[in-house]
Write a structure and sequence with these properties.
Blueprint (H helix, E strand, L loop, with lengths): L2 E9 L3 H11 L4 H9 L6 H18 L7 E19 L5 E17 L21 H6 L19 E2 L7 E2 L8
Antiparallel strand pairs: 1-3, 2-3, 4-5
Helix pairs in contact: 2-3
């Protein structure tokens, strides 16, 4: 069985927090893990999802493996560099703050007995922006001003230069 791997170095999230997500997807098929990570609310989920997609792309492009037969053989989260900071406290003391980074390594392997994926991911459609010519050709819609009521002053429309029309609903002085 063919293996492929991808690395993510210097992820600015503590390993303890990244392992929560990593342990969740260990042993899953690539499609299942992708679906799980897409809807996870953990902060490390998008980074691991990007790493998983990189590993799948490595398998497809470099080793010509089928995406549907890939599963996560192992995912390892190691401690990376640590930034040391200090928080000033009472009586001239300081509390150390350790900002720990992570290294994540994911290993994918093929499995012929894998069930077909329950989820399908479709490529996003790109929204085309209008060119200047198309904007000029498009007819501009004119907004109609609301008609004033019989009293007129209570439903008065106030406009200042550069602002949208605002309907006055309270008038302090009666004229």
């Amino acid at each position: 069985m063919a293996e492929t791997q991808a690395k993510l170095n210097n992820l600015r999230i503590a390993p303890r927090k990244v392992r929560l997500v990593a342990d969740l997807i260990k042993g899953m098929s690539a499609a299942e893990a992708r679906a799980e990570l897409t809807f996870s609310k953990k902060r490390s989920a998008p980074a691991i999802l990007k790493l998983l997609q990189s590993a799948v792309a490595n398998a497809k492009n470099n080793q010509k493996l089928e995406e549907d037969k890939l599963y996560i053989k192992s995912i390892r989260v190691d401690k990376g560099p640590m930034l040391k900071r200090a928080l000033p406290r009472a009586r001239g003391m300081a509390t150390p703050i350790h900002k720990i980074w992570s290294h994540v390594i994911i290993v994918l392997e093929t499995n012929e007995d894998l069930k077909p994926p329950r989820f399908t991911f479709h490529a996003r459609k790109k929204i085309g922006r209008k060119t200047k010519e198309e904007k000029r050709e498009a007819p501009k819609e004119k907004q109609e001003k609301p008609k004033l009521s019989e009293e007129g002053k209570k439903d008065e429309i106030v406009t200042k230069k550069g602002e949208a029309p605002v309907k006055k609903f309270f008038q302090r002085k009666v004229i």
